[in-house]
C-alpha cells in the first residue's frame, strides 16, 4: 500500500523519481574497511580489514549456507564473482553511468565486459534456439543460400522464355539467352562469400556480433570521441563501452524472449539510446542525430566491405 501511494500521489512520485535519479548518478560504494582484528581461517595470519593480505581470503568466511552454496555453483560457470548481479542491475537501470564508472577505474566492482558478452551471447543462442523449435521453426531454416538458389533458377526460367522471335519492321531477330552466364565466376564467388558470412553468423554468433560491433563503432566513435563527460575518450575505451551496451541490450532481449514480451524488446532498443546519453552527457536530440548518422555510415561500410570481399575472391579465383 505504501508503494502504491508513491505511484498515485504526484508529490511523492516526484520525490521517488528524484531519489532514483540521485541513485543512478551515484557510483558504487565499496564496503568500509573493518577495524576488527581477524585470524585468517586459511593461513592463520592476524590482520585488520576485510581480506587477508597473505592469501586473500575474506574475513567473513563463516559457515556454509544455501546462498553461499548457490554462489559457489555460479562461480563454476564464471558468474558468481566480480559483481555479476550488481552489473546486471546497473546495466538495466543506470547503464551509461555504470559504464562511465567502469572506464574511470572502478573495475573490480563489475563483471568483465567481454566475459559477460560471450556468456550472454551463449544464453541468447540457447533461448533463441529453444523458441525456434516452436511453431515457426520450419520458417527459420530458410537461409540466404536457399533464397539465392531460388532466384537463380527463376532467372534461368525467365531467360529461356524470352528466347522468342522479336519483330522490328521487316526484320526479325532471334534473341537467345545464355543461361550459362548465370554461372559466371563473379556470381559464384559472390554466392560463396555470402554463404561463408552466413555460416559464420550461424556457427559463431558471438564472433559475428563482435565484428558487427567493431564496424558500428567506427563511425560512432567519430561523434563520441570528445564528450562533456569524457573529453579525451580513447577508441579502446569506447569499444568497452559499446560491449557493455551490447550486454545491456542482450539482457532485455533475453528477458523479452523468455517472457514473450514485445515491450521488453522495444525497451532494449530504447535503452541503447539511454545508455549513450548517460555515458556521453549529450542532449537527447544530439544523441539521436548521431545514432541516425552512424546507422547510415555503417550501412555504407558494410556494403563496401561486402563488395571488396567478393572482388578479392573473384581476383583470387582468376589468379
Q: Can you tell me about this structure?
A:
66% of the residues lie in helices and 4% in strands. By secondary structure, the chain is mainly α. The strands form two sheets. It has a two-stranded antiparallel sheet. It has a two-stranded antiparallel sheet with strand order 3-4. Helix 9 (205-224) crosses helix 10. The protein is globular. Residues 132-141 and 164-182 have low confidence and may be disordered.
Helix-strand blueprint:
Blueprint: H1 2-8, H2 10-25, E1 37-39, E2 46-48, H3 66-76, H4 84-93, H5 95-103, H6 113-132, H7 144-161, E3 165-168, E4 171-174, H8 185-203, H9 205-224, H10 235-259, H11 262-280, H12 284-318
Antiparallel strand pairs: 1-2, 3-4
Helix pairs in contact: 1-2, 4-5, 5-10, 5-11, 6-10, 8-9, 8-12, 9-10, 9-12, 10-11
Strands of the biggest beta sheet: in what spatial order? 1-2
- Percentage of residues in helical conformation: 55-70%
Radius of gyration of CA atoms, rounded to a whole number? 28 Å
Tell me the number of strands: 4
Task: Report, as a whole number of angstroms, the end-to-end distance.
Answer: 77 Å
Average of the residue pLDDT scores: 79
Spans of at least 5 consecutive residues with low confidence: 132-141, 164-182
- Largest sheet descriptor: 2 strands, antiparallel
In one word, what is the shape?
globular
Given the helix and strand composition, which structural class is it? mainly alpha
Percent strand: under 5%
Total number of helices: 12
Element-level helix/strand string: HHEEHHHHHEEHHHHH
